[in-house]
Write a structure and sequence with these properties.
The chain has one domain: Rossmann fold. The chain has eleven helices and seven strands. Helix 9 packs across helix 10 and helix 9 packs across helix 11.
Length: 278
């Protein structure tokens, strides 16, 4: 009997240890906007909440869904494959195909996005996304879940050429982008598991930090903006609130980290509505 209880305790301890070391593997297929969100802080935020997050990012600057689709068809070795492994070590492999990244891990999640300038142009999704998603699903396990990341509106004084599509109006861009991504996310043809609402998260953050969350008018700044984006990503992946997570970079204060966490959480709860952060 004593031996039975010792074995039972050992089995339970082993099960708890395995649970504590759960690993989530997520691959982003994007551009500099996915770089801003997944390549820093996501692993650390997950670790602080007891989950190891392995991150891959197939990167081409300014890449649209149309271009990703062409690369998937052709197998063109056009990507930089950035990866954050189970230990948090980051590596970069140059000149690889999309197939290389897709085959590198048994991905739990794959995240896609449109290039930021066309984020509010529904026709840019409708024309290329159906075939893109169809081909992607053929490349991975049936267990892999797909995410779509809502991009954010540009800073009010941004000089990005694509800002002209929205008459250089941040609120107009946010509304257009949000409308498009919500429509695509809800479209059953694509079967997206979740929306990563970074556009709303950044807009929420602007109610607290001001219009200062980008470093050049459109890319997230490396102090608060990227952390806020990572918080949103982490909450979607883990399925639990990021508010109160103990991790934040030394470059921001506890108060700033909490505000960023609140902005991310509010976006996940209400992805189509801006929430004022206090």
């Amino acid at each position: 009997m004593k031996r039975f209880f010792i074995l039972l305790i050992a089995t339970v301890a082993l099960a708890l240890n395995v649970q504590a070391q759960d690993v989530i593997r997520v691959l982003a297929i994007g551009n500099s906007f996915s770089e801003d969100v997944v390549e820093q802080h996501v692993h650390e935020l997950g670790k602080a909440q007891g989950t190891t997050i392995v991150v891959g990012n197939l990167y081409i600057g300014g890449c649209s869904i149309q271009k990703h689709l062409g690369n998937l068809r052709s197998g063109k070795k056009a990507y930089r494959y950035r990866k954050v492994d189970e230990n948090g070590k980051k590596t970069t492999t140059r000149k690889v195909s999309m197939h290389h990244g897709l085959a590198d891990e048994e991905w739990d999640y794959i995240m896609v996005q449109q290039v930021s300038g066309f984020g509010g142009v529904y026709a840019s999704f409708e024309r290329f996304l159906p075939e893109y998603m169809q081909l992607l699903r053929k490349e991975v396990s049936s267990k892999t879940k797909f995410l779509i990341m809502q991009t954010w509106a540009y800073q009010g004084n941004s000089e990005h050429a694509s800002f002209s599509i929205y008459n250089y109006d941040q609120k107009a861009m946010y509304k257009a982008v949000t409308k498009c991504y919500m429509k695509v996310f809800k479209d059953k043809r694509y079967g997206f598991h979740a929306l990563v609402p970074n556009g709303t998260a950044i807009q929420n953050g602007r109610t607290y930090f001001g219009d200062t969350l980008t470093r050049d008018g459109f890319h997230l700044d490396k102090r608060v903006g990227r952390y806020l984006g990572a918080c949103t990503m982490c909450e979607v992946l883990l399925g639990k609130s990021v508010v109160g997570n103990s991790y934040h970079p030394a470059t921001i204060t506890n108060e700033e980290a909490l505000a960023a966490q609140k902005a991310a959480h509010a976006a996940v709860v209400k992805p189509g509505k801006v929430t004022k952060i206090k």
